[in-house]
Amino acid sequence: MSTGVGMSSCCLSGKVHEGNPTGKVETIDNLQTYVAAPKDGSKAKSIVFLTDIFGWEFKNVRLLADNYAKEGFYCYIPDFFQGDALPIDFLQSVEPPLKDRENLTLTDKAKSTANVGTTLPPWLLRHREAVVKPLISSFISTLRNDSSTGKIGAIGFCWGGRYAIVLSHGEVDAAVACHPSLVAIPGDFEGITKPLSLAVGTEDSMLDQKSVGSIQDIFGKLSVDHELRIYEDQVHGFALRSDWSSEKDKKAMDESEKQGQDWFNKYLA
């Protein structure tokens, strides 16, 4: 039986990063899309970014796409939530970083739980798989129909991490999933036919160590290339929303970025 790994207030914590995105916005397959292109404009190595619940306008994911573009990837961040991403202010109002959690009072924790309980369930219902997966598949098909597009990869974070795993069943040429949430184990990992790389933290409340162990067991039976990298003391969202004031957290985020770039350089070449 598949078991689903859920979502909690950890999905809503983290830091907004400094910097100004340099890409452009286009409409592709009827979806507003942030596009970050490499200097030569080549689409030989194209990547679709599957965001967390804060969506395609979240500055952090755009800055990350810009970094990938500098390394030669043609990057797309489609608005799969169609204007209904959760507001960025939840980042600071719902749950603090790991280092501050021990100072939370019972009242603070109760408020956090109540906020998540009233916010996430209706949002997740609006953006359930039956609604979102067809949008994702259609977008990828549109890219495939562009003769200038080479191989296509998918990278997902949190909510989007699960769909990166699902797309590795054959819709993309390679995938990277960073701290995925709402995954079904073993269900979402059955049928993987394309190279898949996972990045998870030891303090991820959405993917505990028992779940990670189960994934490792599944990976041990796969005939396709795969990897699972575990980042010590990192919480859910670290690859996208780490606190840059922490040298350790910034290093983990940088390493997870390189993990993805190395994976795509290998399998989209």
From TrEMBL:
Signal peptide as annotated in the record: none
Gene Ontology terms, MF aspect: hydrolase activity
Matches recorded under InterPro entries: AB_hydrolase_fold, Dienelactn_hydro
Dienelactone hydrolase domain mapped to chain residues: 32-268
Superkingdom: Eukaryota
Protein name: Dienelactone hydrolase domain-containing protein
Native species: Glarea lozoyensis (strain ATCC 74030 / MF5533)
